Amino acid sequence: MKKSPIILASTILYVLTIAVVQGQSITFEKPLDIGQGTVSGISALDVADLNGDARMDVIVLEGGAHAEGRFTLAWFEQTKKGKWIKHDFNLPVIFDDFIGAARCEDMDNDGDMDLVFSNDGHSTGPINVYLLINPGKKKVYDQWDYSLISTIEGFHANDMRLADMDLNGKKDVVIRHKNPESLKIIFQIENENWQTKTIYEGQAGEGLAVGDINRDGIPDITMTGHWFKSPKDPKNGQFIRFDIEAGFKEVNKATKEEVGDINNDGRPDVLLSPAEHFKKYGGDNYDLAWYECPPNPEEVSAWTKHVVKSDYNKAHCAKLADMDNDGDLDIISAVAWDEREIRIYINEGGKFRTSILVAEGKGIYSGAIADIDGDGDLDIVGEDKYSTDAKPWLFRNLLIK
Predict the structure, then answer these.
(1) Mind listing the pLDDT tens digit for each residue in 314-372?
(2) What whole-number distance in Å separates Cα of residue 334 and Cα of residue 317?
(3) Cβ atoms of 78 and 379 closer than 8 Å
(4) Which helix (H) or strand (E) holds 248?
(5) Cα 317 off chain centre by
(6) Beta carbons within 10 angstroms of residue 87's beta carbon
(7) How far apart are CA 186 and CA 183, in angstroms?
(8) CB count, 10 Å around CB of 345?
């Protein structure tokens, strides 16, 4: 595969933020445009070690509808010397305008990371979901095999997770889309066959996450103030909806969310963030909040709500990760439109009294959290806004131990 010229990463440290939390000094380097201007208009990205060199690479996808006509499917290789090299996937496919979501996982269980992404017309259908198979580190720069694993009626498939939903040892695709408003699972069956199942239909909005809410060993799904209990046979059985905060979608129907044990009590909690401020897509300002999972999450009104920030909106990125290396999950929240910012809320025993401003003027639309530079702390990668001229920025964590 043809390679673009080598792109140099900056070696000068510009500290944006310094905060001392429980003895840990958290600083962030001046953000680096990984693409150095070669890509712009990104609507989806993810991070993974694609070439097996133990260094994280960055996958970038930009497309049509709000990207001034550009369309890119590419990844940036992180080299040993801290340089970034662009590699295009060069798929012989005519794609529609919008890359709604992209996720990396080892989909074929061969030990390397593959890519799943959705493509549609943003406001027209259908939705095509593609799988790109990593050919292995010796051939990773060559043409990747690809397949169309599902074509779905609808458009704007903006939320996707990859997880083994039926416990058959193969990763499945959980996806949410509009027109019709639908939550689906694309099950990976034996012999690389795929089966698409509708889990729920009729709830407008965005947002989903996956986690074992009731701790029965089978992954469940959360979606804008509800969670869906997986049956013992997810491919054929019925998913049952339970409330976390049923009224969340009445205030803001578009969320970003995560599942994780926030208070370290052994139960999976749920983080919800109001993500869209446009009336037709989302709604009014509301709460960035985490919901404490009770011993029996199926009980009505059993979840305890903890507000992190009230009167909040446009936070299209919500992540849980241990950013200060103290053993608990912090909250990473980013506003993706006007008044953009990235902020970390520090977990102090389940309370979030302290926050750190990572960047002002740059937000994150989807983003990823990973140890990009291999120094033992977690860094942030994200497109600074929704599409248009959005670029892939690296916010390097300089945590001083």
Answers:
(1) 999 999 999 999 999 999 999 999 899 999 999 999 999 999 999 999 999 999 999 99
(2) 5
(3) no
(4) helix 248-251
(5) 8
(6) 19
(7) 10
(8) 21
